[in-house]
Design brief:
Chain A: It is a peripheral membrane protein. Chain A: It is found in: Cell inner membrane. Chain A: Keywords: ATP-binding, Nucleotide-binding, Transport. The complex is a heterodimer of chains A (about 550) and B (about 280). Chain A is of the alpha/beta class. Chain A has two domains: about 210 residues, P-loop containing nucleotide triphosphate hydrolases (Rossmann fold, 3-Layer(aba) Sandwich), CATH 3.40.50; about 240 residues, Rossmann fold (3-Layer(aba) Sandwich), CATH 3.40.50.300. Helices cover about 40% and strands about 25% of the residues of chain A. Chain A contains 22 helices and 20 strands. Chain B is built from ten helices and no strands. In chain B, α1 crosses α10, α3 runs parallel beside α6 and α5 packs antiparallel against α6. Chain B is elongated and about 75 Å long. The longest helix of chain B has about 35 residues. Classes of the chains: A alpha/beta (about 550), B mainly alpha (about 280). At the A-B interface, α13, β16 and α15 of A face α7 and α8 of B.
Chain lengths: ~550, ~280
C-alpha cells in the first residue's frame, strides 16, 4: 500500500535571541523519518520539549512562531508539501490535512455557534455545499456520540462541556473529509472519566471514516489504545519506531523501557494505627454566595502515613486542603491536629501550629517568588520558625538541598533557572525546612513529565521514611494512589464517596462513582479501551 | 543588562537628565552670574556677555536657567518620591488586607480623584502659608492618588499568587508580604511609572509657578521664568521660550528613558527575555 504521508530526514530549526548576544540558531528536530498509511494511526510520544507538536505540525507544513522547517521532505500522496507555495499549502490545510488542538476551549470562537464553525472549512474550500456539509456534521455528531446531535450545532462553545467541545473539534477536523488528522494531545486537559469517552469517540470516528491520523501525546497508556504504530521522540530525535505491540511488549531502547515501566513505584500499605495526626470531622465549607463546595466530609490520617484524596476537577479536593490550612474557615465541623482542635481561621493559629502543616502546590512556578534565590526560598522558614542565621542557616540549606538530591550549588539560582522537576524539589525542601508533621500535596506531579513525576514520588516516599512525615496527597491519578497511599478518600461533587485503607477502597464491591473512576484510568495494555467499553455497554444494556 | 543593549533614544534621555542634574548640583560653580543679580538692561538679545540674553528685570537668563534647574528638579523629585512612598504603602496595604480597608482606601481615593487636581492645588495653596515644604507636600498628596490606582492594580495581580499564599500560611506578617514578596515583583512597572510621574511633576510645578502659587520670586524656577517673561513675546522677545524649552526638553528626556524601561519590563518574563 502506498504511504499517505511520508516524512524523510526532517530538520527543524529556530532562532533564539539571548539578550546581549548575537542570535543563535537552534536545531529542534533532526533526522526524523516516518510513514503513515491510509486509515492508520501513528502515535508521536515524548516528554515536553521532545518536538512532538512541532513534528505533528509539519504535516500541515506549518511552523509555530519563529520555527522553520529547514530540511528533509514531507510528502502527502507523493507531493512534497515543503515545496508548495502559500496558495498550494492553503489548499492542503483544513481540507486534506486537519488539526485538533489540545485546548478546544481556546480553539473555538466564543462568538459563533458550533455548527457554523464545524462546517466553515468545508465551505471555504468548496469541498461540499452547505446542505451536504450540514448533513455530514450531523452524521459526525452522531458518530462522536454527542448529545442531541440535531440541535448540537445550534449551541455556543460555552454551553457545552470540555469533553464535548473536544469532540466538536474532532468533528470540525473530520468534516471536510480529510485524508489525515493531526491530534495534538486532545485528551490531556480532560478528567480521566471524560478522557475515556473522548478517546472512544475519536477512535470510533477514525475507524468509521477511514481517516489516517497522527496522535500526539505524552501518555503511553493512551497512545496504546488508539494507534497502530508508535514513534518515540526525545530531544527532537527518534528513539524508537515500531508497532504498538512491539513498543509496549518488547521495547528495545532504555528510554522506551523507562516510559513503559514508569508506573513501577509500589508501596505496601501500612496498618491503620490509632495514633491519629489529623482528624477532619463533619466539615462543611463554601463561599459567601451560599454555594457549598464541601458537605459533611469526615476523614482521618494516622502519623507517618499517606492519605490520597482522589476525584475529578471540581470535586472539592483542593478546597479540603484550603480548609485544613485555615485559608477557608469551615462553616461547620472541626479539624483536630495531634489531638488538639485547630482554630478555624489562619489568623487564630500560632506559628507552631502553622509550622506543623506545610503545603506543596501543583505549579511550582507560581508557588515560589521569582525574585528570590533558592537560598532565600528555603532559608526563610529556617529563620522564621527556628531563628537560624548566618553560617548555621547556610549549612542547613545545603543539608536540605542534599536531602532533595540537588546539592548546594543550586543555592544561588533563581526559580527561572531551574527545570520543572527541580522547582518542585525546591518547593518540597521549603516545606521540609519547617520540619512539619503533615505536608499537604496538591497535585504536585500532575504538571510534570512522567519520568520526572516518578522521581518526585520516589523522593516523597524516601523523605517519609527518613522523617516520618504524613502526607495528604491530592491527585486525580489512580496510578499514583496505588503507588504511594496507605488510605484513600474518594470525593465527588463535594461529598466523600468512599474512605478507608487502600486495599479496601480499591477492591470490590464498589460504589458507582469509584467504579467509573477506576475503570477510566488508561492501562498500558493493548485492547484495554475495547474491554472497558464492552463492560460498560453490557452494563447499560442490562439496565 | 549591558550598555550596548541600551537604544540611542534612551542614551539621549539619560544624557539630558545627567546634564540637568549636573546643572542643579553645581549651579553656583557653573553659573556666570548670581541667581537674582541684575546685570544689564531689560531683555537684552542673546550673545555677547549674556549667552541667552537677559530677562524682564535684567537678570542673566542663562544663570537663572541653571539655578532654576536646581529648584525645579529638587521640588519635582521630592514630590514624586513622597507621592510614591505614600501611594505605594497605601495601595499595597489595601491589596494585601482586602475587605473593608481596601474599600475605604479605594473609595476615598476615588473621591480625591474626582476633584480636578489643578483646582484642588490652587485652593489649598492659596489658603496655606507659602512655604516650599507645603508645596511639595500638596503636590505629593495629589499625585499619590494616581500612584495608588496603579499600585493597587499591580499588587492585586501578585497578591493572589501562590507564593504569597505560601507566605501567609507560614504566618508572615503584612510587612513581610508587602516588602519582601510583593514589592520586588511589582518594581518594574512602578519604576516606569515613577519616571512618568516625575515628568508630570515638573510640568505641574511649572504650571503652579506660572500661576504664581509655586516657587516664589526671586528664586528661579523654569515655570516661573516663563511667567516673568511672557509679556516679552508680544514684543518679539524670545526669553520666555528658553525656560519653556528646558521644561519640554527635560520632560522628553525623562520619557525617552521611561519608554525604554517600559519596553524592557513589560515582557512577561520580567524583562530578562528580550533586549
Amino acid at each position: 500500500m502506498p504511504d499517505l504521508l511520508s516524512v524523510r530526514n526532517l530538520k527543524i530549526e529556530a532562532t533564539s535571541y539571548p539578550p546581549g548576544e548575537p542570535p543563535k540558531t537552534v536545531t529542534l528536530v533532526e533526522g526524523v523519518n516516518f510513514d503513515v498509511q491510509k486509515g492508520k494511526v501513528l502515535g508521536l510520544i515524548g516528554e515536553s520539549g521532545a518536538g512532538k507538536s512541532t513534528i505533528g505540525l509539519t504535516a500541515l507544513a506549518y511552523g509555530r512562531g519563529g520555527v522553520r522547517i529547514t530540511g528533509g521532505e514531507v510528502k502527502l500522496n507523493g507531493e512534497d508539501l515543503l515545496k508548495l507555495g502559500p496558495a498550494g499549502i492553503r489548499k492542503v490545510r483544513g481540507c486534506k490535512v486537519c488539526y485538533v488542538a489540545q485546548s478546544a476551549a481556546a480553539a473555538f470562537n466564543p462568538a459563533h455557534r458550533l455548527g457554523e464553525q464545524v462546517i466553515e472549512a468545508s465551505l471555504k474550500h468548496g469541498v461540499m455545499g452547505r446542505a451536504e456539509a450540514e448533513k455530514r456534521a450531523l452524521y459526525l455528531f452522531k458518530v462522536l456520540g454527542l448529545p442531541s446531535p440535531e440541535t448540537f450545532g445550534q449551541r455556543y462553545p460555552h454551553q457545552v462541556s470540555g469533553g464535548q467541545l473536544q469532540r466538536a473539534m474532532t468533528a470540525m477536523a473530520l468534516c471536510p473529509n480529510p485524508e489525515l488528522i493531526v491530534f495534538d494531545e486532545p485528551t490531556t486537559a480532560l478528567d480521566v472519566t471524560t478522557q475515556i469517552d473522548v478517546l472512544a469517540a475519536i477512535k470510533h470516528a477514525i475507524e468509521e471514516t477511514h481517516t489516517a491520523a497522527l496522535y500526539i501525546t505524552h501518555d503511553l497508556a493512551v497512545v496504546a489504545q488508539i494507534t497502530d504504530d508508535i514513534l518515540v521522540l526525545r530531544h527532537g530525535k527518534m528513539v524508537e519506531y515500531g508497532s504498538v505491540k512491539q513498543i509496549i511488549e518488547a521495547p528495545t531502547q532504555d528510554y522506551t523501557r523507562a516510559l513503559v515501566n514508569v508506573r513501577g513505584t509500589k508501596r505496601e500499605e501500612a496498618p491503620d494505627q490509632s495514633d491519629t495526626l489529623l482528624k477532619v470531622d463533619n466539615i462543611t465549607a463554601g463561599y459567601s454566595n451560599g454555594f457549598k463546595v464541601l458537605q459533611n466530609v469526615s476523614l482521618h490520617l494516622p502519623k507517618g502515613q499517606t492519605l490520597a484524596v482522589v476525584g475529578e476537577s471540581g470535586s472539592g479536593k483542593s478546597t479540603l486542603a484550603r480548609v485544613i490550612t485555615g485559608l477557608l474557615p469551615p462553616q461547620e465541623g472541626t479539624i483536630s491536629f495531634d489531638g488538639t482542635p485547630l482554630p478555624r481561621a489562619l489568623k487564630g493559629r500560632t506559628n507552631d501550629q502553622l509550622r506543623r502543616i506545610q503545603m506543596i502546590y501543583q505549579m511550582a512556578d507560581t508557588a515560589m517568588n521569582p525574585r528570590q534565590t533558592v537560598r532565600d526560598i528555603i532559608g526563610r522558614p529556617l529563620t522564621f520558625y527556628y531563628g537560624l542565621r548566618g553560617a548555621r542557616k547556610t549549612e542547613r540549606v545545603k543539608e536540605l538541598l542534599e536531602q532533595i538530591e540537588m546539592g548546594g550549588r543550586f543555592a544561588d539560582r533563581y526559580p527561572a533557572e531551574l527545570s520543572g522537576g527541580q522547582k518542585q524539589r525546591v518547593a518540597i525542601a521549603r516545606a521540609l525546612a519547617a520540619q512539619p508533621e503533615l505536608i499537604l500535596c496538591d497535585e504536585p506531579t500532575s504538571a510534570l513529565d512522567p519520568l520526572v513525576a516518578e522521581g518526585i514520588l520516589k523522593l516523597l516516599l524516601k523523605l517519609q521514611d527518613e522523617t516520618h512525615v504524613s502526607y495528604m496527597f491530592i491527585t486525580h491519578d489512580i496510578a499514583i494512589v496505588r503507588a504511594i497511599a496507605d488510605s484513600v478518600a474518594v470525593m465527588h461533587r463535594g461529598r466523600l464517596v468512599r474512605f478507608g485503607p487502600k486495599s479496601k477502597v480499591l477492591s470490590p464491591p464498589f460504589d458507582d462513582y469509584t467504579d467509573l473512576l477506576l475503570k477510566s484510568v488508561p492501562e498500558m495494555e493493548i485492547g484495554w479501551l475495547e474491554k472497558v467499553l464492552t463492560t460498560r455497554r453490557m452494563e447499560s444494556a442490562g439496565n | 543588562m549591558r550598555l550596548s543593549t541600551i537604544p540611542i533614544s534612551a542614551w539621549v534621555g539619560i544624557l539630558g537628565i545627567l546634564l540637568a542634574v549636573f546643572c542643579a548640583l553645581f549651579a553656583p560653580l557653573i553659573a556666570p552670574y548670581g541667581e537674582s543679580q541684575i546685570v544689564g538692561a531689560v531683555w537684552q538679545p542673546m550673545g555677547g556677555d549674556h549667552l541667552l540674553g537677559t530677562d524682564n528685570l535684567g537678570r542673566d537668563l542663562f544663570s537663572r536657567l541653571i539655578f532654576g534647574a536646581r529648584t525645579t528638579i529638587f521640588v519635582a523629585l521630592a514630590a514624586t518620591v513622597l507621592s510614591f512612598s505614600l501611594g505605594m504603602l497605601l495601595s499595597f496595604t489595601a491589596a494585601v488586607t482586602g475587605g473593608f480597608v481596601d474599600q475605604a482606601f479605594s473609595r476615598f481615593n476615588d473621591l480625591m480623584m474626582a476633584i480636578p487636581t489643578l483646582i484642588f492645588a490652587l485652593v489649598v495653596l492659596a489658603v496655606l502659608p507659602q512655604q516650599l515644604w507645603i508645596l511639595i507636600l500638596v503636590m505629593a498628596v495629589l499625585d499619590s492618588t494616581r500612584v495608588y490606582r496603579i499600585g493597587r492594580a499591580v499588587a492585586l495581580d501578585v497578591a493572589v499568587m501562590e507564593f504569597v499564599e505560601a507566605a501567609r500560611l507560614r504566618g508572615e506578617g503584612t510587612g513581610w508580604i508587602i516588602f519582601r514578596e510583593i514589592l520586588p515583583n511589582t518594581l518594574s512597572p512602578l519604576l516606569a511609572e515613577f519616571g512618568l510621574r516625575f515628568a508630570f511633576s515638573i510640568l505641574f510645578l511649572s504650571t503652579l509657578s506660572f500661576l504664581g502659587l509655586g516657587i516664589q520670586p526671586p528664586a528661579a524656577d523654569w515655570g516661573g521664568m516663563v511667567k516673568d517673561n511672557k509679556d516679552g513675546i508680544i514684543f518679539g522677545i524670545s526669553a520666555a521660550l528658553i525656560p519653556g524649552g528646558a521644561i519640554a526638553g527635560l520632560a522628553i528626556c525623562v520619557n525617552l528613558v521611561v519608554d525604554w524601561l517600559m519596553k524592557r519590563t513589560s515582557s512577561l518574563k520580567g524583562g530578562r527575555g528580550d533586549a
